[in-house]
Amino acid sequence: MPNVFIPTMLLPVSNGVKQVRVEGRNVRQIINALNDLYPGMSDRLTDGDELKSNLAVSIDGELARLGMLEKVSDMSEIHFVPAIAGGNNRLTGITKDI
Known about the structure:
Mean pLDDT: 88
Low-confidence stretches: 89-98
CATH class: Alpha Beta
CATH superfamily: Beta-grasp domain
Structural class: alpha+beta
Distance between the termini: 58 Å
Strand content: 15-25%
Strand order of the largest sheet: 2-1-7-5-6
Number of strands: 7
Number of helices: 2
């Protein structure tokens, strides 16, 4: 079963449990299993059918690109982490002569 690490901000929902193994083949199933164990967990992780915009999921050290549909294996380690927004791609106030 995949091993899920509960983020610090959700420890009150999990009654202080920091790590749990739950069944699931994708992130959606993992969140549903977490919610079965800890009612209210899915409300904290999702917004409708999507992950909350301020969250990202790391599976085996790689950020999940498919969100709720990302597959997991029986040996996966899953972390819910704060999403990090990118910076500005434009250089403002600087001109370059060509």
